[in-house]
Every structure is written in C-alpha cells, then in structure tokens.
Specification:
By secondary structure, the chain is of the alpha+beta class. It has ten helices and twelve strands.
Length: 338
C-alpha cells in the first residue's frame, strides 16, 4: 500500500528562492485553470477537462505576461492542473462545494513532483532545477528498498519546510484478528470515554499556550500592515499555532494506534462538529479537542490494518437510552447524565 512519509528539511537560499517561485507559479496556474473551467461551466454549460487545461498551459507560457511560468519545472504545474479536475469531480458528485481560488496569504504553499522531476539515489533527493540535494532530517527510516513515486514539498505558515515521500510500505497490512470490540464516546471533560470504563483525559493543548498565543496576537495587531515587523510577528503567531497542532496530532496518533491494535471493532458516533461550532461557548474547546481529526485517523488506520469502524447515526438517542434495560426517556438534561 502507498504511504506518505513526511520529513522536515532546511533549504539553502537558492533552493528556498526556487521553491518559492515554484509555489507562486503553481498557485497562478491553479487559479487560471479554475477560472477557465468556471467560466466554461457558468457561461456555456461546458465541462473543461484536464487535457484542455494542459493545452491552455502551453499557450499561457508563450504569452509575454505569463512567460515566467516557463522558468520553473513544468511537472508541478502539470500536477496542479489535476487538482481542479478532482475538485470539480467532487462538486458535480455533490461531495463538496464549488472550488475556490487560492490565496497567497491563506492557501497552503506546496508543489508536487513526479519521478521525471526528481532524482533519488541512495537516500539522496534532488529536485528539478536544483543542483544540490535537499538537506532532509530523517526522523524515521523509509521502508527498505523504498523508491518514492511522488515528492511533495510544502512550507507552512510558521516558515517550516517539509517534504513528503509517497512510497510502497509493506508494514501497512492487516493485523491478526482479535476478539475485542469497543464503543467510543467523545467529549470535553474527558476526550474519550470507552465502553470498557476507561476514561482518557482531555489535555486541552490550546489552553496550555493560550496566554502565549494572546501575547503574540496582541503584538501582531500593533504592527503596521505591510511592514517587516508585522511579517515577523505573524510568523511568531503561526509558530504557536503549529506547536499546538503538533502536540494535538501526536496525542491523537498515539490513542488511535492503540485502539486499532487492541480492538477488532470500533464504534463511534457521527458527530455534527460543524454544527456544534455554532455554540460560541464551546467552539474553542471543540476545536481544541480535535474530534474530526480523531475520526479521520481512526478510519484510515482501521482500513490499513483490517479493522471495522461502525459509525452510529447522529440521531440515535444513545444518551436517552438506558444501557441496562433499554428504556427510552423523553428528555435528558445535562445535570443527570453520567
């Protein structure tokens, strides 16, 4: 099975400049392709495919206004044309909303390279248009004899650079079957309460850094827009957010891995998280808990290892139903729940 291995790397000044140019060109091509497809759909009712936008890319490179697109590797530009294709496919299948344009400030800065645009030799990775290999911190080993099929380079708002290598991973395989099932209830006082009686506490990662985050945001608000000091302050805020997100992801990975290894069947509730965020008293705590991220990790790890995840309908009256006799009560105030 294919699996992505993500590592941090430290580019040289020349590499950072080349990748930044590539990120800008990728964003420009994506927006141009999205505009062409949107206009064709809204004005003429036509669906423009990948082949048509690929031909448009060649035309754009020959214009004086967009000649800079030819200065970077063509592979990331071709790859980004596939993203509107997938976005419109999800839109027409009613799985997502209409695609949006990418913003320089808010969108993720990334570029995708296929095998024709990078060289992999003895654990050394060199991208197209670069003479030096990337200085990667190998925090964990790749699978033995692994050869990446796709390389994705990205930069987060905190200014950290990452490279993701897509490889075949033989360790992703079904685990031995076990005779155990567990029900999982997500909450805020306790992050998870299991049907076995175990309660997993809520670490409240955001609350631990709330004062640090507030000071950084106040400092950012005092900086003049467009100034260098404002850019530095924005990076400091992003670093605090990144530290919180990293701790949350690490905690959830450890929990989901243990639950998948110990149980054959895992039962969770289908929570309407986006609707719950409308409660402004609980929105911050719900976001900090990471319920959606927990479910995503649980589901893909269960697929990897041959486990079953059962999702209970959100309208099933689990809180009003007695677990001993099955009696259903009409109302269940919060003060009587256990």
């Amino acid at each position: 099975m294919k699996r992505a291995f993500k590592y941090r790397f430290y580019p040289s000044e020349a590499q950072a400049a080349e990748l930044s140019r590539t990120f800008g060109c990728v964003r420009k091509v994506y927006n141009l392709a999205l505009r062409a497809r949107s206009e064709a759909w809204t004005l003429r009712g036509e669906r423009v495919g990948y082949e048509a936008t690929s031909a448009l890319l060649t035309t754009w490179k020959r214009t004086e206004e967009l000649a800079f697109l030819a200065e970077v590797s063509s592979v990331p530009l071709q790859q980004t044309l596939r993203h509107p294709q997938n976005a419109f496919g999800n839109f027409f299948a009613k799985r997502a909303e209409f695609p949006r344009f990418k913003s320089r400030k808010k969108s993720r800065a990334s570029a995708e390279y296929t095998r024709s645009a990078f060289r992999w030799r003895d654990g050394v990775l060199t991208l197209a248009k670069m003479t030096e290999p990337l200085d990667i911190r190998w925090s964990r080993p790749l699978p033995r004899d692994a050869t990446p099929s796709t390389v994705t380079v990205s930069r987060d708002p905190a200014g950290r650079w990452f490279v993701s290598l897509l490889c075949d991973d033989p360790s992703v395989r079904p685990l031995s079957a076990v005779d155990a099932a567990v029900g999982i209830d997500a909450g805020l006082d306790h992050l998870l309460v299991l049907s076995t009686g175990e309660k997993i506490g809520n670490p409240r990662h955001e609350r631990r850094d709330r004062m640090v985050l507030a000071r950084a945001q106040r400092a950012l608000s005092r900086k003049q827009k467009g100034s260098g000091n404002r850019f530095k302050a924005r990076v400091r805020v992003a670093r605090v957010h990144a530290r919180i997100a990293d701790r949350r992801a690490d905690f959830l990975h450890k929990i989901t891995t243990r639950l998948v290894r110990e149980n054959q069947t895992l039962v969770i509730e289908d929570l309407a998280v986006s609707n719950m965020l409308g409660n402004h008293r609980l929105a911050r705590a719900i976001n900090d808990a990471g319920w959606r991220q927990f479910r995503q990790q649980l589901e893909y790890k269960a697929r990897w290892h041959g486990r079953d995840v059962i999702v209970v309908d959100r309208w099933f009256p689990s809180s009003k139903l007695c677990s001993a006799c099955g009696a259903l009560t009409a109302a269940m105030p919060l003060h009587v729940r256990t």
